[in-house]
Amino acid sequence: MKPQLLIGAATSGSGKTTFTMGLLRALKKRGMRVQPFKCGPDYIDTQFHTLAADRESVNLDTWMASRTHVQHIYNKYGEGADVCVAEGVMGLFDGYSRMEGSSAEISQLLGIPVILVVSARSAAYSVAPLIYGFKHFHPNVKIAGVVFNQVSSLPHYNYLKDACADAGVECLGYLPFTDGLKIPSRHLGLTLTAKRAMDVLIEQAAALVEKYVDIDKLLNICHRGFPCRYILPYSSEVGVESFTPRTKKLKIAVARDPAFNFIYRENIARLAELGHITYFSPVYGSDLPEADLLYLPGGYPELFARQLHRRKKLMEAIKTFAEEGGKVLAECGGMMFLTRSLTARQGGTAYAMAGVLPLDCTMVGARLHLGYRRLEYNGLELKGHEFHYSNIIEPDALPSVAKQFTVRGMEVNTPLYRYKNVIAGYTHLYWGEADILKLWEE
């Protein structure tokens, strides 16, 4: 038995992340080992969680992974913790198809209760039917309590407590309206300066949670058996795929710094089964570690284009590695780093990049490309998530080698490029239950 909960909300923008970060830090300050999780494919909130809890956050996503795999990694990472806290995504029941892929589905799958964050801005007793509806909408999704956000005064909170009482849900407290408590733009690299600023915000959120939220009651009502139950309808699904036994342990180089940090925790765990991982920084370093496999994850290379442009020695080493047949997997920002040039803004310099791919990348005219993707390549099926603003200027200069589809089966023109043993594309792949080395099998 241990406290386990999912922090959900009626809508996006209700304050889930602020409350989650504050609660994680408040629990850590109590000396508790708290394991954070994030519902969905987000790779930015997980970094905020990690800062707040000093424990790496893990994604739980029923589109990119099987349900048995989600249960497996929840138990795996939660086992050594005193409390498990999962932050939801969007509104509680918002999924890629009705409730499928939603935070509510994760709550039901893991058998953990929901703490509902409700924005009280411009609302008072009228939140009662909203709370009542969330409590009764789905019998297997348990709303254990409510925390209100953006509460203007104690009299305001009293109306909200009445609403909870009449809806039959525990009121656990609130966060007052605070001008300075606002998460900065997510489109920033997590430099040391940015981390320090985030840490100040997390401390502010924790102080409010400690003062205005009944943490003890929250923990008490969220005690559940651990590990999570295995629900019969999902028991027939295939679990984690075992890698084909290999006698050789690979040397794996992974880029990780403020420009390249969109990384799924379980992907790294699977790479670690293949061999030894060495991290390096394209922003701050000049040397490429000795490697059999190079992984360049996504991130914000456009914010560090000038610094990356100066890493001539590193870029030459990466190009040589690729030309000599080294295995490279580059996702989104990692792919941008492999192009000939990167233009960060209108009228700005086209900074020379590694030049492995005969492509040029630009942020000019940028618009958001977003959504889950299913990828078919050489008989292999992988799933992932596309999230980027940049564009390849002439995307057909190198033919795509794969087909990609949305959750509804509609083909999209998102390319996957291959040059020798370099595989690169915009989609952030999840291979937590797959053998990523099959990408290079003929």
UniProtKB/TrEMBL annotation:
Calcium listed as a keyword: no
Coiled coil: none
Keyword Nucleotide-binding included in the entry's annotation: yes
EC number(s) recorded for this UniProt protein: 6.3.5.11
UniProt-annotated site: Increases nucleophilicity of active site Cys, residues: 428
Pathway the protein contributes to: Cofactor biosynthesis; adenosylcobalamin biosynthesis; cob(II)yrinate a,c-diamide from sirohydrochlorin (anaerobic route): step 10/10
Location of the CobQ/CobB/MinD/ParA nucleotide binding domain: 9-188
Keywords of the record: ATP-binding, Cobalamin biosynthesis, Glutamine amidotransferase, Ligase, Magnesium, Nucleotide-binding
GO MF annotations in UniProt: ATP binding; cobyrinic acid a,c-diamide synthase activity
Domain (CobB/CobQ-like glutamine amidotransferase): residue spans on this chain: 251-433
Source taxon at top rank: Bacteria
GO biological process: cobalamin biosynthetic process
Catalytic machinery residues: 332
Swiss-Prot/TrEMBL cofactor(s): Mg(2+)
Biological function: Catalyzes the ATP-dependent amidation of the two carboxylate groups at positions a and c of cobyrinate, using either L-glutamine or ammonia as the nitrogen source.
HAMAP family: CobB_CbiA
Similarity section: Belongs to the CobB/CbiA family.
UniProt miscellaneous comment: The a and c carboxylates of cobyrinate are activated for nucleophilic attack via formation of a phosphorylated intermediate by ATP. CbiA catalyzes first the amidation of the c-carboxylate, and then that of the a-carboxylate.
Protein name stated in the entry: Cobyrinate a,c-diamide synthase
Name of the encoding gene: cbiA
